[in-house]
Amino acid sequence: MERQIMHIDVNNAFLSWFAIWRLKNGEEIDIREIPSIIGGDESRRAGIVLAKSNIAKQFGIVTGETIFQARKKCPNVKVFQGDYKIYREYSDKLYKLLLDYTDKIERYSVDECFLDMTEYLMKSTLMDKAKEIRKRVNEELGFTVNIGLSSNKLLAKMASDFEKPNKIHTLYTNEIEEKMWTLPIRDLFMLGRKTVPKLYNMNIKTIGDLAKADIEQLINKFGKHGKIMWEYANGIDLSDVAYKYEEPKSIGNSTTLAKDIQDLESLNEVLLALAEHVAYRLRKYNMIANVINVGLRTKDFKDFSHQGKLYIPTANTKDIYLKSKELLNSMYKGEAIRLISLRADKLINKNEGQISLFNTKDEKKQEKLDKTLDELKEKYGYLSITRAGKLGIEKNIKFK
DNA sequence: TCTGGGGTCCTAGGACCC
DNA sequence: TCTGGGGTCCTAGGACCC
After folding, report:
1. Is A175 a catalytic residue?
2. pLDDT (tens digit, 9 = 90+) per residue, A203-256?
3. Helix (H, G, I), strand (E, B) or coil at A293
4. CATH topology for A251-399?
5. Which end of chain A is more exposed for a tag (fewer CB within 10 A), N or C?
6. Cβ contact A88:A39 at 8 Å
7. Are A162 and A155 in contact (CB under 8 A)?
8. Which residues in chain A are classed under CATH 3.40.1170.60?
């Protein structure tokens, strides 16, 4: 039976949500009505455009470019910083509203959902439901969404990306040729800045060109990715709406440093702050890590990383810090570093991890210490009590 | 005051084993 | 004498997404 899939995408999510929040908190100006952007912190060298108003878009401002470039295009663009907590709050409101329609909802990101409506339609059509959802989101939550309708996730997602804002589009199999094959290949999901030029060199310029290309040749050149891009171009996607909770496979944090750092001691201090945060998040998920990965970005944007297995899977701050320090020290050759990252990988649920025979007294002590500190963080805020905080480096790093 | 941060998945090559 | 082949695990790097 043909599935009934809906993809919902919040228009200019970060900017719209921040606009509503401001209005609710007594601000007069609706930043959706002026040239405005949500951007990162320029003083911390994180000054990129994260979202833009429709008016800012008319000036040619695009997501991902620097705020510096955005200002050149529109000198009086207003820049706001936004807040992830606010985004989360509105994302949750949307999710709750959608639960009125189906519980088969995949939260693909903070501002995108897939809905499997196959078993929830009764007499009404998918289009009826989409219209109702759009209306209710407008009236009850105060923002707009684009909705894509089709028989699989890929096509629904492509559809929601058509004309914006506040629009509903269909992209059923019989519409692929007319609505999708005419688009340039860069519009196809999963084709990014590295692959598009390669396809151009093969004289594949539209999604239609790709759909009609020789699949064997694509697999030859791109491996598994070649098969997927050919299938997507032909509107083939058998994946299910992943509505069940899934445990994270990795948890990491990274930070762009306010200034390049060129000595190991200082890098180690930043690493401690990262370790503390990553381990804290692991414990909140009740997960333990088998592998630790440390990454560096040099001042000229060269990325490299080292990873290593832990002797015992853990979520202890100290153990994670010591492992990451070992990795950092083995890889660092004195470059000027712009960004440092720490990622806990190959995670398993703590309850699934075998009760370690090697669990030493010291580890139990660490676990207890971490637990105490976590409780204080819950009570008084994350930054109230950090090991790294003592070193005064928190101001270099931003945590939620 | 030029370029975020959090993720997932894939691949190539080396080590090691039989 | 002149160099297998399959399988698995591990690591570094990279592509892509929002």
Report:
1. no
2. 999 999 999 999 999 999 999 999 999 999 999 999 999 999 999 999 999 999
3. strand
4. Dna Ligase; domain 1 (3.30.1490)
5. N
6. no
7. no
8. 15-84
